[in-house]
Every structure is written in structure tokens, then in C-alpha cells.
Specification:
Blueprint (H helix, E strand, L loop, with lengths): L4 E8 L4 E5 L2 E3 L2 E3 L3 E6 L6 E5 L4 H22 L6
Antiparallel strand pairs: 1-5, 2-3, 2-6, 4-5
Amino acid sequence: MERSGVVVISEAFDPGWRASLDGARAPVYAADLGLMAVPVPTGEHCVVLSYRPRSWPFALLLSAVGVLVVIALLVRRRPQNTT
């Protein structure tokens, strides 16, 4: 008898993990004291995991500000033509 189950992944659970099951978004649960689990129905399926930490937008913003500061410093230090 076939029945649905759960795929347990040997990776630490974090809310930043995302899963897709056959191309559709699937829930990711904490299992076995901190591992990840993705429920799957009966049959053969493709489970794809991706990770995007919640701090990602803040890190991107901070990087962009850093690049702008470096550009501003380089423009400011450019030698002036004294003619």
C-alpha cells in the first residue's frame, strides 16, 4: 500500500528555507529536533530547496549604501584641474 509521507532533510531548519514540490510552493516544517521536513504525496516527485535569509533585503540595502559611499569618496578625492 502506497501512502503520502514526509521527506526529512539533514539540514538545520530556518525560516529562510523555501521548498517547491514539482514546481509548486510547498511548506517546510521543523522536524526531529531542528531538521527540515517537506510533506510529499504518494508517487515520485521533485523537491527543490532554496535559502533566502530574512536579513537579505537589509544586507542588499547595506551593500548598496556602501557602494554609493565608496563612489562618493572617489569622486571627492579626484584631483582638480588648476589652470
